[in-house]
Amino acid sequence: MSPHEPFDRVAADYDRWYDTPEGRRAFSAEVASLRLAVGAMSGRWLEVGVGTGRFAAALGIGAGVDPSPRMRAFALDRGIEAVEGSAEDLPFPSAAFDGVLLALTLCFVDDPQAALRECRRVLTGDGTLLVGIIPADSPWGAAYMREAEQGHPVYATAGFFASGDVVPLVERAGFRLLTSSSTLLWRPEEHSEGTPRIETGIVPEAGFLALSFAPR
Q1: Helix axes 69-77, 5-17, angle to 10 degrees
Q2: For a tag site, which of 1, 46, 85, 145 has the least CB within 10 Å?
Q3: Which domains does the chain have, with CATH numbers?
């Protein structure tokens, strides 16, 4: 089975989830958290692991790369210039982008360090890396790992990172942390109403962390 096959199979269902009440609420919180962590997003940006293009479209990112043709088809329909490629071998020249987004991508790549080094390569010297993750040690991460154990076709391929492991992982690839923010501060099974809470910094129980880095 090719690495992108599980994503091809679930592409339509995955994208449809974002239009459910739960999906809309979680997504709006995640986008707000990313915006808080990065501030202004000027210049040319790339999303690595663009998927169906939801994050890229919401954040005004025009270029994306993903190995899954069915995922890319959704991104193309959203106006994203989505091309085939893997995070570990980006099909772009060095210093081609002012910013790179990895939203819910690191846990799915075969070699996270190689992927991060590639992000470093395609960034300009004063560029920004923006990372969004579901921490393994959060209620949301625990819920997804339970689904993985039960044979979920996508989560079974993931390797989730604990919140305390992500910053050192990225720093080893030649980055330094700038800012961070946290959200999904409710449990997956809870029905949460009102404006989702976004906190600055890394909140241990948060289900989503947004972290911005600069090249060292």
Answers
A1: 40
A2: 1
A3: 5-215 (3.40.50.150)
Q: Which amino acid does the sequence have at 174?
A: G
- Give CA angle at 144 (142, 146), nearest 5°: 70
**Residues with Cβ within 8 Å of residue 107, at least 6 apart in sequence:** 133, 134, 158, 159, 160, 161
Tokens of 39: 């501030």
Residue 15 one-letter amino acid: D
Taking the C-alpha atoms of residue 204 and residue 207, their distance in angstroms, rounded to an integer, is: 9
Q: How many CB atoms lie within 10 A of CB 205?
A: 15
178/211 Cα distance (integer angstroms)? 8
Residue with tokens 């993931």: 158
Would you write out the chain's pLDDT as a tens digit for each of its 216 residues? 455 677 898 899 999 999 999 999 999 999 999 999 999 899 999 999 999 999 999 999 999 999 999 999 999 999 999 999 999 999 999 999 999 999 999 999 999 999 999 999 999 999 999 999 999 999 999 998 998 899 887 788 888 999 999 999 999 999 999 999 999 999 988 877 778 999 999 998 999 999 999 999
CA pseudo-torsion sign 196, 202, 204, 209: positive
How far out from the chain centre does Cα 39 lie?
17
